[in-house]
Amino acid sequence: MKNKLYILLFIFAFQSHAQRSDFNHIDFQKADSIALEYKNEKLDNLAQLSHKLTNNLETDVEKFRAIYLWVSTNIENDFRLYYKNKRKRKKYLNDTAKLQVWNQEFRNTIFKTLLKDKKTICTGYAYLVRELSKLANIECEIVQGYGRTGTTTKEDLALPNHSWNVVKLNGKWYLSDATWASGIQNPETFKFVFQYNDGFFLANPKMFSVNHYPVEKKWFLFDENQPTFDDFLNNPIVYRQAFNNIAELLTPQQMHSTIQKHEKINFQYQLQHSVKKEDIIFLVDNGTEQKKHQPFSISIKDQFLSLSYQFSGIGFYDVHLYIQEQLIATYTVKVKGKSL
Q1: Residue 277, CB half-sphere, CA atoms under 13 Å: how many?
Q2: 3-state secondary structure (DSSP) of residue 138
Q3: At what angle do helices 60-74 and 29-37 cross, to 10 degrees?
């Protein structure tokens, strides 16, 4: 009975957050087709581009959708610029004057590269989404903060390192990240590859906060149980495909857990859609080998997913969750021998 009550209360709270499900009644097909129709448009006239993308759409959410999709599928993430900025910021971390000079120089470089080559980093994506939205009379702002990926170290988060957008639709603010939606870095060539991910469009604030931490706390878009920065640093690592599958990570809420041998560790999630039990696996890495394992137990009810796993040996393990062969999240588990 308590579990049923918990699930009902959770679903109510989950639905109250500003997210894409607020617009399940909207068909974005027309907005998407317009964004694709104007693929390869130049950036020399933003007012004209905004007009082309939004003029034949009725609602603000459809207009924003066309703008967001166009930016995410036409602007390249310039990893060369990203790594250059990362090196300079690290170099000038303890020299405020030089850091300010570099930030100004780099800001100019970002926008020149954006307008000339349609390449940029997160700041340019967020700027372009904001400007095109404002030209369409849609209230949109840039959020400065911290972004955490599988390759981000704590040293990388000494200063804010990421930008994204909030947009006001029907009187409510919504979160979107055009940068992370746009594509990935090819692991062999290190070049950008367009690979649109729809999970970052009007994302669930709770899920978004797992790897986005705003400088201004109001842009969490939820008031209850806001994470501290230490919470953010200790979160599980979530990957791009998590945002297409998971509405919220519930348990564990930290990346690292310590348990005893033969003790069960539980994992709980709110799903975005139904999945089959056979599509859920753990890839467990003990440092010398990786093995795929089915969870010890799986329960799926009302899109509430509960898993458990049990380790038979002591050691330190990386545990990777996959759903339908898509990498969702990574945890670390230290398994100790039982105390005497």
Answers
A1: 11
A2: coil
A3: 40
Query: Which is nearest to 241 in space by CA: 329, 328, 330, 152?
Result: 328
- Domain of 269, CATH number, reads 2.60.40.10
Q: Are residues 223 and 269 in the same domain?
A: no
Residue found under tokens 């990777």: 320
- pLDDT band for position 334 (50/70/90)? very high
What digits encode the pLDDT tens for the residues 82-111? 888 888 888 888 888 888 888 888 888 888
| Mean pLDDT computed over 276-280 | 94
Would residue 240 count as lying in a domain?
no
pTM of the model as a whole:
0.90
Q: Of the residues 235, 265, 289, which one is the last residue of a structural domain?
A: 235
Report angle CA 152, 245, 171 to the nearest 5 degrees.
90
Same domain for 128 and 59: yes
DSSP conformation class of 262: T
Give residue 282's domain range: 249-336
Question: What DSSP element (H or E) covers 91?
Answer: helix 79-91
